[in-house]
Amino acid sequence: MRICIVGGGNIGTLLVGEAAADGHDVTMYTSRPDSWHNHIVVKDIQGLIIAEGDIYTITDDMSLALKNQDYICVTLPSIAQKSFADKAAAYVKPGTRFVMIPGYGGTEFLMQSVLKQGAVLIGFERVQAIARLIRYGQSVCMRGRKNEIQLASYPQCPEDEIKTIANDMEVLFHLPVKIMPNYLNITFTPSNPVLHTSRLYSMFKDYQEGVYYPSHLPFYDGWTDFSSKVLFRLDDEVQLLCSTLNHLDLDGVNL
Protein backbone atom coordinates (compact mmCIF):
# COMPACT_ATOMS: atom_id res chain seq x y z
CA MET A 1 0.00 0.00 0.00
CA ARG A 2 0.97 3.63 -0.50
CA ILE A 3 0.80 5.26 2.93
CA CYS A 4 1.41 8.87 3.94
CA ILE A 5 2.06 9.52 7.64
CA VAL A 6 1.29 13.01 8.92
CA GLY A 7 2.91 13.81 12.26
CA GLY A 8 6.26 12.58 13.53
CA GLY A 9 5.49 12.05 17.21
CA ASN A 10 5.30 8.79 19.13
CA ILE A 11 2.52 7.09 17.14
CA GLY A 12 3.54 8.55 13.80
CA THR A 13 7.11 7.29 14.13
CA LEU A 14 5.94 3.85 15.22
CA LEU A 15 3.62 3.63 12.24
CA VAL A 16 6.34 4.79 9.86
CA GLY A 17 8.81 2.22 11.15
CA GLU A 18 6.43 -0.73 11.12
CA ALA A 19 4.86 0.13 7.75
CA ALA A 20 8.29 0.57 6.16
CA ALA A 21 9.46 -2.73 7.67
CA ASP A 22 6.49 -4.45 6.03
CA GLY A 23 7.48 -3.11 2.63
CA HIS A 24 4.75 -0.50 2.21
CA ASP A 25 5.53 2.61 0.14
CA VAL A 26 5.76 5.09 3.03
CA THR A 27 5.84 8.88 2.78
CA MET A 28 6.61 10.97 5.86
CA TYR A 29 5.05 14.44 5.75
CA THR A 30 6.81 16.66 8.29
CA SER A 31 7.73 20.29 8.80
CA ARG A 32 11.22 19.07 9.79
CA PRO A 33 12.38 16.82 6.94
CA ASP A 34 16.06 17.56 7.63
CA SER A 35 15.68 16.01 11.11
CA TRP A 36 14.56 12.65 9.71
CA HIS A 37 16.62 9.65 8.67
CA ASN A 38 15.43 7.37 5.90
CA HIS A 39 16.01 4.31 8.08
CA ILE A 40 13.65 4.02 11.06
CA VAL A 41 14.12 1.56 13.95
CA VAL A 42 11.42 0.26 16.29
CA LYS A 43 12.54 -1.29 19.59
CA ASP A 44 10.70 -3.08 22.38
CA ILE A 45 10.82 -2.06 26.02
CA GLN A 46 13.99 -4.17 26.52
CA GLY A 47 15.74 -2.26 23.75
CA LEU A 48 15.63 -5.07 21.20
CA ILE A 49 14.93 -4.17 17.57
CA ILE A 50 11.52 -5.54 16.53
CA ALA A 51 11.12 -3.72 13.21
CA GLU A 52 13.09 -1.47 10.93
CA GLY A 53 12.67 -0.15 7.43
CA ASP A 54 13.36 2.62 4.96
CA ILE A 55 11.02 5.52 4.26
CA TYR A 56 10.34 6.05 0.56
CA THR A 57 9.87 9.82 0.76
CA ILE A 58 10.43 12.44 3.49
CA THR A 59 9.03 15.84 2.56
CA ASP A 60 7.46 19.09 3.72
CA ASP A 61 5.79 19.50 0.30
CA MET A 62 2.12 18.71 0.90
CA SER A 63 1.30 18.44 -2.79
CA LEU A 64 3.91 15.68 -3.12
CA ALA A 65 3.09 13.96 0.17
CA LEU A 66 -0.66 13.57 -0.41
CA LYS A 67 -0.55 12.65 -4.08
CA ASN A 68 -1.88 9.19 -5.09
CA GLN A 69 -1.86 7.74 -1.57
CA ASP A 70 -4.07 4.79 -0.60
CA TYR A 71 -4.30 6.15 2.94
CA ILE A 72 -3.22 9.36 4.65
CA CYS A 73 -2.67 8.58 8.33
CA VAL A 74 -3.05 11.67 10.52
CA THR A 75 -1.41 11.39 13.94
CA LEU A 76 -1.56 15.10 14.75
CA PRO A 77 -3.08 16.35 18.01
CA SER A 78 -6.53 17.91 17.75
CA ILE A 79 -5.09 21.41 18.02
CA ALA A 80 -3.23 20.97 14.71
CA GLN A 81 -5.85 19.12 12.69
CA LYS A 82 -7.89 22.06 11.39
CA SER A 83 -4.84 23.90 10.12
CA PHE A 84 -3.65 20.74 8.38
CA ALA A 85 -7.07 20.08 6.83
CA ASP A 86 -7.37 23.65 5.55
CA LYS A 87 -4.05 23.30 3.72
CA ALA A 88 -4.71 19.73 2.54
CA ALA A 89 -8.08 20.60 0.98
CA ALA A 90 -6.34 21.89 -2.15
CA TYR A 91 -4.88 18.43 -2.83
CA VAL A 92 -7.88 16.26 -2.01
CA LYS A 93 -10.14 14.51 -4.47
CA PRO A 94 -13.40 12.63 -3.75
CA GLY A 95 -12.73 9.36 -1.95
CA THR A 96 -9.37 10.35 -0.45
CA ARG A 97 -9.06 8.40 2.80
CA PHE A 98 -7.75 10.10 5.94
CA VAL A 99 -7.04 7.67 8.78
CA MET A 100 -7.38 9.53 12.08
CA ILE A 101 -5.28 7.98 14.87
CA PRO A 102 -7.14 8.33 17.15
CA GLY A 103 -10.43 9.61 15.71
CA TYR A 104 -12.04 11.21 18.75
CA GLY A 105 -11.71 14.83 19.79
CA GLY A 106 -14.07 16.27 17.17
CA THR A 107 -12.07 15.29 14.08
CA GLU A 108 -15.23 15.23 11.97
CA PHE A 109 -15.54 18.98 12.66
CA LEU A 110 -11.84 19.85 12.55
CA MET A 111 -11.39 18.10 9.19
CA GLN A 112 -14.36 19.80 7.52
CA SER A 113 -12.18 21.37 4.82
CA VAL A 114 -11.24 17.99 3.34
CA LEU A 115 -14.67 16.48 3.95
CA LYS A 116 -16.19 19.21 1.80
CA GLN A 117 -13.90 18.05 -1.01
CA GLY A 118 -15.31 14.52 -0.78
CA ALA A 119 -12.72 12.95 1.52
CA VAL A 120 -13.57 10.11 3.90
CA LEU A 121 -12.46 9.93 7.54
CA ILE A 122 -11.48 6.55 8.96
CA GLY A 123 -11.40 7.08 12.71
CA PHE A 124 -9.87 4.76 15.30
CA GLU A 125 -11.40 4.56 18.74
CA ARG A 126 -7.93 4.56 20.30
CA VAL A 127 -4.32 4.35 19.17
CA GLN A 128 -3.03 0.94 18.18
CA ALA A 129 -0.14 0.83 20.67
CA ILE A 130 1.74 2.70 23.37
CA ALA A 131 4.89 4.24 21.95
CA ARG A 132 7.59 6.65 23.06
CA LEU A 133 10.23 8.32 20.93
CA ILE A 134 13.83 7.28 21.53
CA ARG A 135 15.41 9.68 19.04
CA TYR A 136 13.34 12.02 16.91
CA GLY A 137 13.25 11.00 13.27
CA GLN A 138 15.25 7.84 13.90
CA SER A 139 13.85 5.44 16.51
CA VAL A 140 10.89 4.69 18.73
CA CYS A 141 10.01 2.27 21.53
CA MET A 142 6.82 0.20 21.24
CA ARG A 143 5.74 -0.40 24.85
CA GLY A 144 2.56 -2.37 24.37
CA ARG A 145 0.07 -3.20 21.64
CA LYS A 146 -3.71 -3.36 21.81
CA ASN A 147 -5.50 -6.68 21.30
CA GLU A 148 -7.93 -5.10 18.84
CA ILE A 149 -8.67 -1.77 17.23
CA GLN A 150 -12.10 -0.32 16.43
CA LEU A 151 -12.91 1.95 13.52
CA ALA A 152 -15.74 3.74 11.80
CA SER A 153 -16.01 5.95 8.74
CA TYR A 154 -17.43 9.41 8.24
CA PRO A 155 -19.42 9.79 6.08
CA GLN A 156 -20.49 6.19 6.54
CA CYS A 157 -19.08 3.99 3.77
CA PRO A 158 -21.02 1.21 2.04
CA GLU A 159 -20.60 -2.17 3.75
CA ASP A 160 -18.28 -3.65 1.13
CA GLU A 161 -16.03 -0.57 1.15
CA ILE A 162 -15.68 -0.40 4.95
CA LYS A 163 -14.87 -4.12 5.02
CA THR A 164 -12.09 -3.56 2.48
CA ILE A 165 -10.76 -0.68 4.57
CA ALA A 166 -10.88 -2.80 7.74
CA ASN A 167 -8.94 -5.56 5.99
CA ASP A 168 -6.30 -3.05 4.89
CA MET A 169 -6.00 -1.75 8.44
CA GLU A 170 -5.54 -5.28 9.77
CA VAL A 171 -2.63 -5.66 7.35
CA LEU A 172 -1.17 -2.28 8.29
CA PHE A 173 -1.46 -2.64 12.07
CA HIS A 174 -1.20 -6.44 12.47
CA LEU A 175 -4.30 -6.35 14.66
CA PRO A 176 -7.90 -7.53 14.40
CA VAL A 177 -10.21 -4.67 13.42
CA LYS A 178 -13.77 -4.28 14.64
CA ILE A 179 -16.10 -2.10 12.58
CA MET A 180 -18.26 0.18 14.72
CA PRO A 181 -21.87 0.90 13.70
CA ASN A 182 -21.35 4.67 13.36
CA TYR A 183 -18.77 7.37 13.88
CA LEU A 184 -20.33 8.59 17.14
CA ASN A 185 -18.86 5.49 18.79
CA ILE A 186 -15.47 7.04 17.96
CA THR A 187 -16.41 10.64 18.81
CA PHE A 188 -17.78 9.79 22.25
CA THR A 189 -15.00 7.44 23.30
CA PRO A 190 -14.20 8.68 26.83
CA SER A 191 -10.51 7.88 26.75
CA ASN A 192 -7.92 10.68 26.94
CA PRO A 193 -10.59 13.43 26.73
CA VAL A 194 -11.85 12.47 30.19
CA LEU A 195 -8.67 10.84 31.54
CA HIS A 196 -6.50 13.90 31.00
CA THR A 197 -9.24 16.29 32.10
CA SER A 198 -9.74 14.36 35.34
CA ARG A 199 -6.09 14.43 36.27
CA LEU A 200 -5.52 18.05 35.28
CA TYR A 201 -8.53 19.16 37.32
CA SER A 202 -7.31 17.27 40.36
CA MET A 203 -3.86 18.83 39.95
CA PHE A 204 -4.91 22.45 39.55
CA LYS A 205 -8.40 22.83 41.04
CA ASP A 206 -7.00 24.78 44.01
CA TYR A 207 -4.67 26.95 41.96
CA GLN A 208 -4.61 30.66 42.77
CA GLU A 209 -2.72 33.42 41.04
CA GLY A 210 0.77 33.73 42.46
CA VAL A 211 1.14 30.04 43.35
CA TYR A 212 4.37 28.47 42.07
CA TYR A 213 5.29 24.80 42.01
CA PRO A 214 8.81 23.81 43.09
CA SER A 215 8.97 20.93 40.59
CA HIS A 216 7.06 19.31 37.75
CA LEU A 217 3.91 17.58 38.97
CA PRO A 218 3.81 13.87 38.07
CA PHE A 219 0.83 13.08 35.87
CA TYR A 220 0.25 9.32 36.09
CA ASP A 221 2.56 8.62 39.03
CA GLY A 222 0.71 11.26 41.04
CA TRP A 223 -2.75 9.91 40.27
CA THR A 224 -5.07 10.15 43.28
CA ASP A 225 -8.38 8.71 44.45
CA PHE A 226 -9.91 12.10 43.76
CA SER A 227 -8.67 11.90 40.14
CA SER A 228 -10.46 8.55 39.83
CA LYS A 229 -13.69 9.95 41.27
CA VAL A 230 -13.67 12.80 38.75
CA LEU A 231 -12.91 10.33 35.95
CA PHE A 232 -15.86 8.12 36.83
CA ARG A 233 -18.17 11.11 37.10
CA LEU A 234 -17.14 12.33 33.67
CA ASP A 235 -17.62 8.85 32.22
CA ASP A 236 -21.07 8.68 33.80
CA GLU A 237 -21.93 11.92 32.03
CA VAL A 238 -20.81 10.51 28.68
CA GLN A 239 -22.81 7.33 29.24
CA LEU A 240 -25.89 9.41 30.15
CA LEU A 241 -25.52 11.26 26.86
CA CYS A 242 -25.27 7.97 24.97
CA SER A 243 -28.33 6.53 26.70
CA THR A 244 -30.30 9.66 25.82
CA LEU A 245 -29.48 9.07 22.15
CA ASN A 246 -31.20 5.70 22.39
CA HIS A 247 -32.12 5.60 18.71
CA LEU A 248 -28.44 5.11 17.86
CA ASP A 249 -26.20 2.11 18.52
CA LEU A 250 -23.58 3.49 20.90
CA ASP A 251 -22.68 0.26 22.70
CA GLY A 252 -19.05 0.73 21.67
CA VAL A 253 -18.60 3.80 23.85
CA ASN A 254 -16.72 2.32 26.80
CA LEU A 255 -14.25 3.81 29.24
Automatic annotation (TrEMBL):
Residues of the Opine dehydrogenase domain: 181-247
Keywords: Oxidoreductase
Protein name: NAD/NADP octopine/nopaline dehydrogenase
Phylogenetic placement of the source organism: Bacteria, Bacillati, Bacillota, Negativicutes, Veillonellales
Pfam family, one: NAD_Gly3P_dh_N
Gene Ontology terms, MF aspect: NAD binding; oxidoreductase activity, acting on the CH-OH group of donors, NAD or NADP as acceptor
Gene Ontology annotations of biological process type: glycerol-3-phosphate catabolic process
Tree of life domain: Bacteria
Keyword set includes Oxidoreductase: yes
Domain Glycerol-3-phosphate dehydrogenase NAD-dependent N-terminal: 3-101
Organism: Megasphaera elsdenii DSM 20460
